[in-house]
Amino acid sequence: xxxxxxxxxxxxxxxxxxxxxxxxxxxxxxxxxxxxxxxxxxxxxxxxxxxxxxxxxxxxxxxxxxxxxxxxxxxxxxxxxxxxxxxxxxxxxxxxxxxxxxxxxxxxxxxxxxxxxxxxxxxxxxxxxxxxxxxxxxxxxxxxxxxxxxxxxxxxxxxxxxxxxxxxxxxxxxxxxxxxxxxxxxxxxxxxxxxxxxxxxxxxxxxxxxxxxxxxxxxxxxxxxxxxxxxxxxxxxxxxxxxxxxxxxxxxxxxxxxxxxxxxxxxxxxxxxxxxxxxxxxxxxxxxxxxxxxxxxxxxxxxxxxxxxxxxxxxxxxxxxxxxxxxxxxxxxxxxxxxxxxxxxxxxxxxxxxxxxxxxxxxxxxxxxxxxxxxxxxxxxxxxxxxxxxxxxxxxxxxxxxxxxxxxxxxxxxxxxxxxxxxxxxxxxxxxxxxxxxxxxxxxxxxxxxxxxxxxxxxxxxxxxxxxxxxxxxxxxxxxxxxxxxxxxxxxxxxxxxxxxxxxxxxxxxxxxxxxxxxxxxxxxxxxxxxxxxxxxxxxxxxxxxxxxxxxxxxxxxxxxxxxxxxxxxxxxxxxxxxxxxxxxxxxxxxxxxxxxxxxxxxxxxxxxxxxxxxxxxxxxxxxxxxxxxxxxxxxxxxxxxxxxxxxxxxxxxxxxxxxxxxxxxxxxxxxxxxxxxxxxxxxxxxxxxxxxxxxxxxxxxxxxxxxxxxxxxxxxxxxxxxxxxxxxxxxxxxxxxxxxxxxxxxxxxxxxxxxxxxxxxxxxxxxxxxxxxxxxxxxxxxxxxxxxxxxxxxxxxxxxxxxxxxxxxxxxxxxxxxxxxxxxxxxxxxxxxxxxxxxxxxxxxxxxxxxxxxxxxxxxxxxxxxxxxxxxxxxxxxxxxxx
Length: 884
Fold this sequence. Notes:
Elements lengths: L8 H15 L5 H12 L6 E7 L6 E8 L2 H13 L9 H8 L3 E3 L4 H5 L5 H10 L3 E9 L2 E10 L8 H51 L5 H15 L4 E7 L5 E8 L2 H5 L3 E3 L3 H9 L3 E3 L10 H5 L4 E9 L2 E10 L7 H44 L5 H12 L6 E8 L2 E9 L2 H13 L10 H7 L3 E3 L4 H8 L3 H10 L3 E9 L2 E10 L8 H37 L5 E5 L5 E4 L1 H7 L3 H4 L4 H4 L3 H5 L4 E2 L9 E6 L4 E11 L2 E8 L1 H17 L4 H15 L7 H32 L7 E4 L1 H14 L5 E7 L6 E4 H17 L5 E10 L2 E7 L34 H11 L3 E7 L3 E9 L4
Parallel strand pairs: 19-21, 24-26
Antiparallel strand pairs: 1-2, 1-5, 3-4, 4-5, 6-7, 6-11, 7-8, 9-10, 10-11, 12-13, 12-16, 14-15, 15-16, 17-18, 17-22, 20-21, 21-22, 23-25, 26-27, 27-29, 28-29
Helix pairs in contact: 1-7, 2-7, 3-6, 7-8, 7-12, 8-12, 12-13, 12-18, 13-18, 16-17, 23-25, 24-25, 25-28, 26-27, 27-28
């Protein structure tokens, strides 16, 4: 070290000359500054720090440190890691950089030292360095401050003054000049290299652009493009990740040098990790050290990549994906690299978009050809089942691996076509339907789309979907799993607003997943198939109508048709014969004008929505000019009007009136129960016969039983007579159905036969009904008595009340004798009994159900029966809900 009192002008000149010569020997500016630090220690300082100012004019970078004491040199490096000076920090170097002038600290004491530190830890480190005196001078070249030189004495005890400042300023000037020369030289050399590299990259870009236009096959195209990108970027790996349809994840699709990423189908969420950040920001992202970065793909680390550069794939502002390159060795990707990779990405994006457009055009062309062929096939026959079978065969394998067509048949589905490349599997499709009929509430598949009228797409079928479809049936679940479904789409067959069936496509290949375009094709196919089916059905309907018209002319019942406006459109020969009204005088005219008294008749004719739901015909008078005709008439409504069918019951009506008169006349002369009563009473009065208590009780029981029988018989006959004469008076009001029923149940339980169990099931919160309360109780009493009477072997009798749309339903069900199917239509006729010969000991007048029907009808209700012989019967009647 040059002692302070030894510094002279000659010493200073000599030192600076030696320093200038040493600094002139290097054209590496960082090496130059390292030389400066070595020259200063120990000649001028015990330790020295050289800093440079970064291009942002704020950040300070340490370039070199040197210390006479190795421990302090390590301490200096540690301190600069944690306390990097900035242009506004209190350290000496920062002050020199701000001012552009030397900064002198002649002598440090603790308070002065604390002013140069940021916090307690910083002060502690500086205390360990123990600076005695310090000097910081700026490095200035061409009027620009490029760094700072900091000198400090510690163990030598040297104090800095003007001489040291002058020497340090001279050294700093020479160092700054050497650095500036080195930087200029490096820039010139870099510019030449950059120009050469730019020219080479331009040539490579031209080659890649040509490649991008050569192929429309995306796989072949990207094989060549990615290899070219790797060459241009001098990278070890190139990876292309495309955005999925949902726009939420990037999927590794092509790669060079990192093929395992594509094989693993790596998926990276947008916004997560390296590639996800590129996609989210749509800006290039540079990762200098992969091990210290947030990456979600472990293959990048496993491959040993050190540096990464990624750019977005954009076309007209739309994000297609991300392309990134990687290096196995530490690599600085600069702005030129970013620009080059983005240019390459733009060409790759253009190639992808061009290929996709071409594929879409080809797919659209294939779809049109397929649909045209399907239309031709569907129009070739009016046998729609055969046409649908051919259609399903055409759809495999173009649309799917399975094609299934189901048609609606009432409440069930009829499978009419199944196609698969394996004929054995086609047969299995029909067997599956037989083993596992579709549930009406199935969440997926044909039942679901028929119910909703909307197509359904499941791009990826999971085990959860199969469990939902099987609804807890383990056998069905295993059968579904054995199919190996990967994807499903189903579209309804809809024509003229009616759902006729459904067409279902399945994929059992792992690589085949249906998408929106596939579903659109399936929907169009379903639309064309529905039109073909509807045409076939219309043709068949037209044939049936022609046959029906011929039949109508030759049947014995009168039939006529009214359109929706009430105009007569059909009047067959039997109608002419019964009414003596000719077809010419009736057809084409409103029924109220053409048919005498039609306005009054029409209100009383029972009208059903389907033939199967047709109720018992109503017997009504038709007042003709010269005579009265009694007709048994009923009707069925359909989309084009209402069909009425009638039969002439004029003679039957006369006989019925005679029978009614007869019943009224003889109802008071029913001798059988009277004879039993009379005989029992006389026996009780005889004095010559000694009767014990048991005998007296039996005779009294006969009197009571036969009296009750006589009363009920007479009552039924009188009720029937009153109903026939239309002399019944109703007291209609609003009544609680539960209260009415509970009264009947309570009364029935007081004399319930042994072995009979009577139960009531009443739905909560039932609305009131509009009815005559006495008549409702009478109907319920008759039905409950019948249920008990026709259960001679005992059993359970159930009475239930439920809400049905705008009505309340009363139901009485037993498990007794039941009613033969052929007799159920007559069960409500007068005098009709199921067991007329008393083979099971069941008696009666045969008027109870007739009375029930008439009472219910007069209260604007309906009554029905369901029964199986030997299994019991269920009688139900409905009454309208009260409006207030």
